[in-house]
Specification:
Largest sheet: 5 strands, parallel
Radius of gyration: 20 Å
Number of strands: 9
Shape: elongated
CATH topology of the largest domain: Rossmann fold
Number of domains: 2
CATH class of the largest domain: Alpha Beta
Distance between the termini: 27 Å
Number of helices: 8
Helix content: 40-55%
Order of helices and strands: HEEHEEEHEEHEHEHHH
Structural class: alpha/beta
Strand content: 15-25%
């Protein structure tokens, strides 16, 4: 691999930027295509497909053959609220191959004993997310019912174009949330991306069922996300 291309690849991976290493198998030349810097034509379509699936493969474009090696940041789920729903989500996320972490300033709930093997932060999201910022490969699920805890991370998720933003609460609760977000400078188009009520509509009632519905919605959002 060209040392300059390798350097660009390492920078992209460190910055959690998705990219595809395109290698011409006829002459060995390679180049890096970052998500958002699309290539036109059949090759561009193949690159887009690889970015969506994360599966590297070989494609034939005209007389040339290319190997497309996908490098996607591992999807990260940030759950706001150390509640029963997030306790049930943690093992499901692990089985599905998603990194999940829990943030809740209520230290009585945000304990390692309640979330064994899951990163849990007994701090305000303002402090945690300033050190571990959200990005387009993050999903944000706010499940506390408390606007003092939920509103900031929801707004941050929208500002950082997270692939999924969901918030627990009734339509009335969400209506009040919308008013607060608008006052905070979030646009209506951004707000319309929020999944509220949270989770696929499967009639979920218990925390465990809601966790399944939310995880299913997150997985669906990841595989059907738009590419900028």
């Amino acid at each position: 691999m060209d040392p300059l291309v390798l350097k660009k690849l390492n920078v992209a991976r460190n910055d959690r930027k998705a990219c595809v290493l395109v290698t011409n198998l006829d002459d060995g030349r390679d180049r890096l295509v970052l998500e958002g810097h699309m290539v036109e034509g059949e090759l561009g379509e193949a690159i887009t497909k690889v970015l969506l699936t994360g599966k590297s493969n070989t494609v034939q474009i005209g007389k040339a053959e290319f190997f497309l090696n996908a490098y996607l940041p591992p999807p990260r789920i940030v759950v706001i609220g150390a509640v029963h729903i997030s306790q049930a989500m943690a093992p499901i996320a692990k089985m599905a191959g998603y990194d999940l972490e829990v943030i809740d300033p209520r230290s009585a709930f945000a304990t390692q004993e309640r979330f064994e093997g899951t990163p849990v932060y007994p701090d305000w999201s303002e402090d945690v997310l300033s050190q571990k910022p959200l990005d387009a490969y993050c999903a944000l699920a706010a499940v506390t019912h408390d606007p003092k805890i939920d509103d900031f991370p929801v707004a941050e998720a929208l500002r950082h174009n997270c692939f999924y933003v969901g918030a627990l609460g009734s339509r009335k609760t969400h209506g009040k949330r919308v008013e607060r977000l608008l006052a905070d400078g979030i646009t209506q188009d951004q707000i319309d991306r929020i999944k509220a009520p949270i989770g696929l509509d499967i009639g979920a009632a218990s925390p465990q069922e809601i966790a399944v519905a939310v995880m299913a919605e997150i997985i669906d959002a990841f595989h059907n996300r738009g590419l900028g």
